[in-house]
Amino acid sequence: MKILITGHKGFIGSAIWNRLKDSHQLFGIDKKDGNDILDYVFKDDYDLIIHLAGLSGVRESIKDPSAYWFNNVEAGRKLFERYKDTRILYASSSTVYQPHLNPYAASKYMLEELAACHGENLGLRFHTVWSEKPRKGMFVDKLLNGNLEYVTNHYRDFVHIEDVCDAIEILLDKDYLKGYIDIGSGMPVKISEFAPELPIRLNTPTERQFTCANIEKLSNLGFEPKYFIKKILTNRKNDTNIIDINGEFV
Prior knowledge:
- By secondary structure, the protein is an alpha/beta fold.
- The chain has 7 helices and 13 strands.
- The protein has one domain: 3-Layer(aba) Sandwich (Rossmann fold).
- Helices cover 28% and strands 20% of the residues.
- Helix 1 links the parallel strand 1 and strand 2.
- It is globular.
């Protein structure tokens, strides 16, 4: 297939690009190349679009909500309107289940509303995506590098980047699916378990208390998560081994 990937140099975008590059004809657009969707003139047509460009992060969205509106909602609107006859798999978020909590969640909720009005699109409700080389400044990155200042009592569904790529690969040719689909492990973990020695922050009104992906739809399509994050070992700076829920190294 001829596939356009937006945000193809980002955390998820670069991973799915590497996964698909030998089996599909790929094209990319990314701000890191100076190409902003809001200004970009789309001339070519594609068989499929994987839209991963945009801003993520709950706390950052509170500081600059307008940036999240333009980069998530307006950029998505432009893409949906230009390619109303092309199927688009687009990055949504588990935060959509409570869109009133923060601007990031609200922007993803509006993105889903727009997508439903334009063609046969499918929202990928990513839960907490992680890897042994995580995004800079995110929870796992801070944990591995000893920069985490506190934990919370939240439960989060962590899904490994390779499992995310598996899910996207499965969904590439499922043209009959539209709306949204959860992408996660289905195994929530309490954040405070990762670093029980750190203080617990309790005042987090803009964040969801509990997240758990419903992976029944994906499982029925053959998806089976391979990585289950449970504990990152004590020596976080030099040891990135992960153990799964059964206590076995993976």
